[in-house]
Specification:
Elements lengths: L1 E5 L31 E6 L4 H18 L2 E7 L4 H10 L6 E5 L1 H9 L7 H9 L6 H6 L1 E2 L2 E2 L2 E13 H7 L7 H11 L16 H13 L16 H17 L7 H9 L5 E5 L2 H5 L19 H4 L1 E4 L12 E10 L5 H11 L4 H6 L6 E2 L10 H7 L2 E2 L5 E2 L6 H8 L5 E2 L8 H10 L1 H10 L5 H19 L1
Length: 466
């Protein structure tokens, strides 16, 4: 097995849009593979220790199967360009791992995927062993585009100790969030830390997190943009009022929101599950710094709760946001060995795959027919962290772990179920919702005006894709 690396920089939180050229193709059905017993596997991951762990998985597969694997590490920021150039050259890999939802849909639109084999893999492994929400997000109608491997949820992390002392309910609704932010906001502690930077995908993700729970959708079932709905205007007002009245001053991003919460200066923070190992003091370059943390680095972890699903006043039910990453087989893959590899990494190699980063790789396949909770049980015992390794269960109570590990069953996203994955990817490239939100937070206009601004911008993006 040979491992190579393509790309520069750290992996982004979420892949942007993929504007792909149609594959020039050829008659070679094995694509980039040199022989039937050799496959090329890209993995959208460029953090060195994670790539090393993935190499061990491919080595184990090669030893058991006799299929040689060339593993190529791809930086997420460079994925779009590399797929485009490889497709144009007729040299796509056989398999791509850790592919985002936007990446899956964009490759499908450009006919770069094997759209038959994933369904057979899921069927062979047992469809009922997967989180159904993850399967639905990786389908186009009845066509299974990919094999969902894992996911991460967006979380509302909150100080249980402060909530309990104030007699507050967990922040599961807009009203509960606003009430808690108002009651707990003060000179030393802000009510909440949430992102507002206009050019940051994290801001748009966080808005979508709240929007989903309030019935605000990007498009309707016909694909018409619906950001000018009353539900979306209401969500814009909710978010803007929350951060204007009860957050820290200035624009906030992924780093500043985390730092504020880690310093004990916010009662709530919106972040992904990747915060969990850091909150427990397992990463030296992102350690909790609250006053209590000096004596006990695990103080915040032990005194924090998490919420995945929230509900607004116009929402029919609570909804949660997150990302599902998948294994895809390309249209030119060497189907048999490629399929064998994906089956392996979703079964014999699955726990090792999750162990690469347990805090951000929540299993979408929960178990097997013989043991329906085999993988979620194993996940709870996996070592998380960077500089220090320990299971998340050493720091978080059973309720918190249950909330996180069941999140792939409830994750929702704008546009994918309506077949608008390409539009979603394009909006993540231009971030019009984040721009509209930032203007509103800065004191300009109303939620209705912000919703209309976002509506016009996304409608223009949609038209450019036609």
């Amino acid at each position: 097995m040979r491992a190579t690396s393509i790309g520069r920089g750290a992996a982004a939180v979420l892949a942007g849009s993929i504007a792909l050229a149609a594959c020039g193709g050829g008659d070679d059905s094995s694509g980039g593979s040199q022989a039937a017993d050799s496959i090329t596997v890209w993995v959208v991951e460029d953090i060195a220790d994670r790539v090393t762990a993935i190499e061990a998985i491919t080595d184990a597969f090669s030893q058991s199967s006799g299929v040689d694997v060339e593993l190529v590490s791809v930086a997420e920021n460079d994925f779009d360009q590399l797929v485009t150039s490889s497709a144009a050259a007729g040299d796509l890999p056989d398999v791509i791992g850790a592919t985002s939802l936007a990446g899956v849909q964009s490759m499908a639109v450009n006919e770069l995927l094997d759209t038959e084999t994933p369904a057979s893999i899921v069927d062979d492994l047992g469809e009922d062993t997967f989180a159904q929400a993850a399967l639905e997000l990786t389908r186009d109608g009845d066509v299974q585009l990919a094999v969902p491997s894992d996911g991460w949820p967006q979380l509302m992390v909150y100080r249980k100790d402060l909530f309990d002392a104030a007699g507050l309910e967990p922040p599961t609704t807009f009203d509960a969030i606003t009430t808690a932010a108002e009651m707990l906001d003060g000179d030393a502690v802000a009510g909440i830390a949430a992102p507002t930077i206009p050019g940051d995908a994290f801001t748009q993700q966080s808005f979508e997190y709240f929007a989903l729970g309030n019935g605000c959708e990007l498009v309707d079932d016909e694909g018409t943009v619906t950001l000018d709905s009353p539900e979306c205007a209401e969500t814009f007002d909710f978010y803007a009022n929350l951060v204007r009245d009860y957050s820290v001053a200035g624009n906030q991003d992924v780093d500043t929101t985390r730092a504020t919460y880690f310093a004990g200066q916010a009662a709530m923070v919106v972040w992904s599950s990747f915060i969990l190992d850091e909150l427990a003091g397992l990463r030296n370059d992102a350690l909790p710094t609250c006053p209590e943390c000096r004596a006990d680095p695990t103080f915040l972890a032990q005194n924090s709760g998490v919420v995945t699903a929230v509900q607004g006043p116009s929402g029919d039910e609570p909804a949660s946001y997150g990302e599902i990453t998948s294994w895809v087989l390309t249209a030119d893959s060497a189907t048999d060995p490629a399929s064998e590899f994906v089956r392996y990494v979703m079964s014999d190699g699955y726990v090792d795959w999750l162990a690469v980063a347990p805090e951000g790789r929540i299993p979408t396949r929960q178990g097997t027919a013989d043991d329906p909770e085999e993988y979620v049980t194993a996940w709870e015992g996996l070592d998380a962290g960077v500089d220090t390794l320990a299971p998340l269960g050493d720091f978080y109570d059973a309720e918190t772990l249950e909330t996180v590990r069941t999140s792939p069953e409830t994750i929702q996203r704008w546009g994918f179920e309506q077949g608008q994955g390409q539009l979603v990817g394009a909006t993540l490239g231009e971030l019009p919702v984040a721009a509209a939100l930032n203007e509103l937070v800065s004191g300009s206009g109303t939620g209705e005006e912000a919703a209309q601004q976002a509506q016009d911008a996304v409608a223009e993006i949609q038209q450019s894709l036609e």
